[in-house]
Amino acid sequence: LGGSISRALQQMSNATIIDEKVLNDCLNEITRALLQSDVQFKLVRDMQTNIKKIVNLDDLAAGHNKRKIIQQAIFNELCKMLDPGKPSFTPKKGKTSVVMFVGLQGSGKTTTCTKYAFYHQKKGWKPALVCADTFRAGAFDQLKQNATKAKITFLRKLYRVGSCKNCSRSGRHKQEAALFEEMRQVSEATKPDLVLFVMDSSIGQAAFDQAQAFKQSVAVGAVIVTKMDGHAKGGGALSAVAATKSPVTFIGTGEHMDEFEVFDVKPFVSRLLGMGDWSGFMDKIQEVVPMDQQPELLQKLSEGNFTLRIMYEQFQNILKMGPIGQVFSMLPGFSAELMPKGREKESQAKLKRYMTMMDSMTNEELDSSNPKLMNESRIMRIARGSGRHLREVMEMLEEYKRLAKIWSKMKGLKIPKKGEMSAL
Ligand code: GDP
Ligand code: MG
């Protein structure tokens, strides 16, 4: 998708005059791309109509950058489609919360609920996993194994609500009806604070109907889209939001426990539009990175080699520029985690703390992109040198690994030449 949308926008940027025809051509191209990316037909049509309403070419005063306005309109429209207007339930301190995971077989429930528990455990919560899947043979053992590996409490109780003796296991339709019935019963018995719908991103155009079917049976409150690391094109996320009127909260990006990211609408849409993390990102770089440092930063980005020293320099930039308008926050997955909104003061203190620790590192450590270098004795030395706790140094290194992974996604991306930078 990224490719063809950015091509469409590129074609538009090559046209000297942007009139009705150019806009229509561009919208048609984007429509095609969105459909290919598994966004439901009706959603695409709605978006097209809305854009035409918003962008009134006659109203655009001469001298305005029409391309930018159109591009911004598309961007905003897609963001709006991913925002159901109400936030998802988040657990409250000091209270037990029940989260129920639902989804078709193989969508990634077992994997995802472990990731979800692991994620919260790292943040100081005390999660526990309970198996309520009586459908799939081996579901209990699979979850237990996952939980053991991640050192998450596993409650042995197996929920058996209702009886599926009467449910015929042959015939796909009957089996699905039985699954939905069982799901309703589990939901009634456990009274979950949040029902999380887990959806495989590779199901294509089926996303909308599937999400809707689940929403009709249980009170879905949030969506997690899995297997975003594969060939899936991501459009299903838009359909799932539209069908469930619930936000996407996380995405799964691999089979491992830590391949799990907080879902952030804007970077996702940027990625969907293929303009990158780039268009906005480039603008920001031009805005906030000193001119003489820009080529070097871009070079480093395209090499994908993220060192602790780069992280240090980026933190310096962030602190200099204040919480808003940071270069780094344009990267997907960055801002939501490291600098959550409304907690800027804390975030800045954290960056400063991280930098103190990095001040206690050797040049070799700062310039290496090999995390294996960081053995226990080095970590201990850094902790002592900076007067911080061992745990904090490890946390900082975790953060580094996470950012390195995001950074590496930029690898090989074409660095725009001077003229191109402002074209998009
Ligand atoms: P369930 O039947 O809904 O419980 O699905 P599972 O959790 O057993 O997952 C089905 C398969 O998908 C397993 O092989 C998982 O390893 C795999 N899987 C789950 N999430 C992801 C993901 O985000 N990326 C990739 N590549 N594989 C995933
Ligand atoms: Mg399972």
UniProtKB/TrEMBL annotation:
Coiled coil: none annotated. It is found in: Cytoplasm; Endoplasmic reticulum. It comes from the Eukaryota. One of its GO terms (molecular function) is GTP binding. One of its GO terms (cellular component) is signal recognition particle, endoplasmic reticulum targeting. It is an enzyme of class 3 (hydrolase). Residues 247-260 form the SRP54-type proteins GTP-binding domain. Its main location: cytoplasm. Keywords: Cytoplasm, Endoplasmic reticulum, GTP-binding, Hydrolase, Nucleotide-binding, Ribonucleoprotein, RNA-binding, Signal recognition particle. Its EC number is 3.6.5.4. It catalyses: GTP + H2O = GDP + phosphate + H(+). One of its GO terms (biological process) is protein targeting to membrane. Component of the signal recognition particle (SRP) complex, a ribonucleoprotein complex that mediates the cotranslational targeting of secretory and membrane proteins to the endoplasmic reticulum (ER). As part of the SRP complex, associates with the SRP receptor (SR) component SRPRA to target secretory proteins to the endoplasmic reticulum membrane. Binds to the signal sequence of presecretory proteins when they emerge from the ribosomes. Displays basal GTPase activity, and stimulates reciprocal GTPase activation of the SR subunit SRPRA. Belongs to the GTP-binding SRP family. SRP54 subfamily. Component of a signal recognition particle (SRP) complex that consists of a 7SL RNA molecule of 300 nucleotides and six protein subunits: SRP72, SRP68, SRP54, SRP19, SRP14 and SRP9. This is signal-recognition-particle GTPase. The chain holds residues 75 to 498 of 547 of the full protein.
